[in-house]
Design brief:
alpha+beta, five-stranded mixed beta barrel, 5 helices, globular, Lon_prtase_N_sf, LON peptidase substrate-binding domain-containing protein, PUA-like_sf, Lon_prtase_N
Amino acid sequence: MTTVRLPLFPLNSVLFPGLVLPLNVFEERYRAMMRELLKTPEEEPRRFAVVAIRDGHEVAPSLPGLPDPTAVPERGAAEGFGADPAKALHRVGCVADAATIRERADGTFEVLATGTTRVRLLSVDASGPFLVAELEHLGEEPGDEAGALAEGVLRAFRQYQKRLAGARERSLTTGAELPDEPGVVSYLVAAAMMLDIPTKQRLLQAPDTASRLRDELKLLRTETSVIRTLPSLPAAELTRGPTSLN
């Protein structure tokens, strides 16, 4: 089993390999993480792991009564995640490679990273200024009929886009060609669909590409049917990922 220790950035979102992650980093524990990553030479990858939060808070209270009137400020790397941070986090996440880490005059950071590979969370160390995780790299097999499934998912995804565009009475055309490599298709569609975190997490940790594509095909057909029934359903840009407050 190949393991690696990396800084850990929990988020209220799921990062998929190949997808871009913009971050606005303002909490001290994550600012400390970025300062540490900046010590890595530019020619080397500046990597950290992203995991979705199962039970906890992405942004911990920083002042009495903010944002919750009953909140008491917490301190330390594990603030907002309880005594055992690992229990508050999903067990499968994604390594992020920070292409840009720019420090602002006020000490906050603007970060642009890209998901690279899936990892399994083995343990979390909260003894330092930020969380550090012991991680196991997760490979991925294509599975049976991944190519044919990817074609079906792409067709269903285009229909989903059209229905969603109609719900907003505007075009979602990006002008870019969608990929045809099954693994890339599976991650792009998983990230682009309007799904809750548990569903996106399920897609991230699928045992193989074909399994993820089969799940996506069912979801696309269901969601398209819902949008057809409820044409006023609100939507979001399909080609943009959420920007974390952190």
